[in-house]
Amino acid sequence: MTINYKKIISMLVVFAVALVTGFTIGRIYLSSNTMPEGSTKTYEEVVASNEEILALYNRSLTENVSSFNGIELWQIANYNLSNLSYFKKIMTGNVNSTGQNLILKAVKEKKDKSLTYTKLSPSATVPFIGIKTPEVCSKFTYNYDTQNTNIVYGKFDVSGPAPENLAATFPTTGGQNYTKDNYIAEFKATPDNAIMPYAISNKVIPENAVSALTENEDGTYSFTISLSGHDAIKDTALYYTEEIFFSCGYKSPKLKWQDVNITVNVDENFMFKSIKYHEVYSLDSPSIPILATITDDFEDAFFFEEV
Questions:
Q1: Contacts of 286 (CB under 8 A, 6+ apart)
Q2: What's the rounded Cα separation, in Å, for the pair 65 and 109?
Q3: Cβ(299)–Cβ(276) below 8 Å
Q4: pLDDT tens digit sequence for 28-41
């Protein structure tokens, strides 16, 4: 048997550096694995123009759902949603973060000239690694009149066990205040434009990424958008990526998208009924010792009357 002394020595050096610096072996090897850059586009560059969307909406007044493809239906439903005086969108689901299951609840509600967004996900310890995932308990409030946004952090009242159970209390004053320009600099879009996590248009979604329309037995219609690879996803997820960076709680995060599958259900009135999301991406940060693989499975439910 031949002993590879060079390999042994190199491994000993890695262990020695890990011991001195406090980094894990995985973190050292990761340093040579650069993450791809995110989107360099603006929100206006990835969505259809107001004129194009208005033309689709006007067609929807005289044509039925089956006359449109999935991208067109998303744009019409998103336009209808943003023009309602009231709606509530409740997202619930699970996050698998490098083997640790987390629960999440995210609620967006338009009411009284404001749009609020609460995002809740209790912290947990990742097995074998010993790091804790960040606690997410934040509330964004966007004022339609001033176009300013306030962000506050709350305290959990109920932290599980199911994502539907999550609840928190938030302070009524204080927090971080953003002007429209400051918010765009941070998140690449204003909250009223970022009601949905993805910007869907034919500028960023190829035709072959969208399934044919299916008419369901309950009178609704469904289609699926399937995207694979960082470059295929980064532009449609430009502000969603920034939201992930903001809420992840890690220093200088970087992200690599792998897969996104979005299954959309709309009704005969061109309104979103439900949306299922399956997302896979890698997250890197100097704050964590490994390259974290994240798998999200979320579902959006929509309500158009205040209960």
A1: 251, 252
A2: 26
A3: yes
A4: 444 445 789 999 99
